[in-house]
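G., before I forget:
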Amino acid sequence: MSLIVHRIGPACTIQDQGRQGYLDQGLSRSGAADLLALFEGAALLGQSPTLAALEMAGMGGEFEASQDTAIALTGAPMQASIDGSAIAWNASHQLLKGQRLSLGAVLKGGYGYLHLAGGIDTPVVLGSRAVHVTAKVGQGVQVGDTLPAGADTARTGMKLTPAPRLTGGTLRIVPSFQTALFAQETLDRFEAIEFTRGPRANRMGMQMETAGEGFAAAGQLNILSEVITQGDIQMTGTGNPFILLPECQTTGGYPRIGTVLPCDLPRAAQTPAGAPVRFQFVTLEDAATAQASFVKELTKLPGKVEPLIRDPHDIPDLLSYQLISGMISASDTPPTQET
Amino acid sequence: MPHAPQPSDSYPLVRNVGLDGMLVSFADTMTEPSNRAALAFRGALEAARWDGVIETSTSLASAYVRFDPLQIPHADIATRLNVLLATCDWYAEALPTGRKLWRVPTVYGTDLAPQLEDAAAAAGLSASDAITRLAASRVRVLTIGFAPGQPYLGPLGPEFNIPRLQELNPMVPEGALVLAISQFVLFSGPTPTGWRHVGQTAFRCFRPEMAQSFALNPGDEMMFEPITKSELDQIRANNADGTGGATCEEITT
């Protein structure tokens, strides 16, 4: 089974949880910008969260099934339909041979995810299927590509209520080894003001904007290039913060004021341009507790999946049924889960 | 209220990198002993194989360990790192074993590496004198970073402690040997850079399509031996393995 790509947004890549063990070679982890969305898709299809999915930044695509298969949609919702009939986001659906799945522009948030039965089965490179565009490990999906599925079937007709994370908000950060390079009043101001996600964003990082002055560190231009980790908030030469994301470099010379908790990175990555962001320092102990709680919630996701009851509002051609039969046909009552 | 750690100037320093990393820094500048200490300490971390450690790496003067804080609490890993630090004088430790010496054919100057003369002038040398000195320099892979497989190499002699360019070099090709601050970088892909482009090789540091994707390891040593443009053309015509005519031998010291 595979999906044939007929149309595709400009920044769609295959992602899993990323690769580890290559930091010493200058290769960062890559992996899904919204890790939670990977786990949600896996829960919906009843499969492993280690499988790969299609990450779509801002814009989806049009896909044709070569055989009957199962899909799930998570992360930032997009206009979604199968052969013109609208389908629910945060849900799993059957896609029959020859049917076309059409995913449009993102409605809220940044990154949408398309999951396939058995995961997207592209070759594993250095221990992962995650494309790393900056490092030229793989490349974006192109028109004419096929997305091979790892299995023919998976559970469909399920839905999941996602943890809200698509409109910015407060990001918890821990002090990191360069935090002490910033004056206390700079740290206080950083924590006190509201930022706006700026227009510059990709899988390497996202810009935060504020009207006030920048956030410079002492000796900013003479800092030895040091290790970078995902979630680091890097101050550029002008003192503008960038939150670094899965394709960040492994080392860098700009100072970092703190690091967003891994469990808050899905919210960070999904923040759309113009949305408000605040930063809140927490202790390492509190951060570890928050992360433990997040990991525990991930393991509970499969138990939170529930049948997708067909809502009349989700059936755009409801009126046509009524015109034909004068009432909703017996086969559609009571509402059933999708099959 | 931010909880900023207090600055300290007594190295080595053990500090956290975000929630899931610790950094053991041996200096705030790159020196030969601090780089050697970082490489040796990272070697000891790899040998220790602590449960909960995910991966380790080095930067110019630090060793880094990424771990699962839910498996090893911060206080525990900090204690372990400090205990390991106290076991010896890391600045006096030998470099890790299994290192290699690479000899890479290199065209210095010409239109392939157009900033050799500029770099020589900045170092107060004639072009030919600069080539002689650079070609005789045996440099260490101080760290690998910025791009996959890409080595920072040094230290070169103090005469080559020349600043980065004010204006970025818009693009240097893969295999470019660039120079600043008594270091080389051998670029693993086409990149804009503020470093001066002094040599050109056909050596590919990162070969994602091959079984051995990364050519170099931190601690390896390299020499860049002068060849002519026509010799480089011949090497490029037969460079399926990406080594660019380089030879490699084990360092046995």
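The helical segments of chain A are 35-45, 184-192, 265-270, 284-304, 318-325. The longest helix of chain A spans residues 284-304.

More on Monday.
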